[in-house]
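Q: Got a minute? One more chain.
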Amino acid sequence: MTIALAGRRIDAAGARMASFPLANADWVRSQLRQLFKEHRPAALVTSAACGSDLLALDEAGALGIRRRVILPFAPELFRESSVVDRPGEWGALYDRIIQDVSAAEDLVVLGVVPNSKDAYLATNRAILAGAEEIAGAGAGVTAVLVWDNRPRGTDDLTEAFRSEAQQRGYAIRIIPTL
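A: Always. Here it is, folded:
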C-alpha cells in the first residue's frame, strides 16, 4: 500500500477558527505513527507544508518508509510561504526532510506559478498520481486526510484532495486535528 496524504497546516497566530492548533501537533504525530505502524505502507507521497505534511514525513522517515515530496514551486519559496509563516519550529525539520528526499531522488518540483490556488490543486493531483505510480499494479493507494473534517467552502484544498481521491476509488482514512 502507498499512502497519499494531505491535510491542514498549523493554524496562523490569532486564527478566528481552529483547524489545527499547534498544541495538537504531538497528538496528531502519534496518530500518524500508529497508522504507519499498523498499515506498514511501502511509501508516503505528500507535500511538505507545516503541520500534517511535515509531521507525516518525519514519522515515515523514522520508520524507514519511502517518502516522496511534491512541491508546487521552488523549495526555498515554498519554505517561506507554507512552512515558516506559522507558529512552531518547522524550518529545520523542512530543511532536513527536503535534503533527505532530494538525496533519495524523491523530491518533485512542479514549477507552477507560485502561491496560486491552481498551484496547490496541481500539487494535490500530483500527490495522487505519484502514489499511483509508486503503488503500481495490484497495490492499493490509501488517501489519508489530516484535518478537522470541516470543509471551508469550494476553495478548500483538503476537501478537493478528498473528492479527487474518492473519485479515483481510493480508501480514505481521516486523522482528526481537533
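A: Helices lie at 25-39, 52-62, 75-82, 91-103, 117-135, 157-167.
Q: Perfect, thanks.
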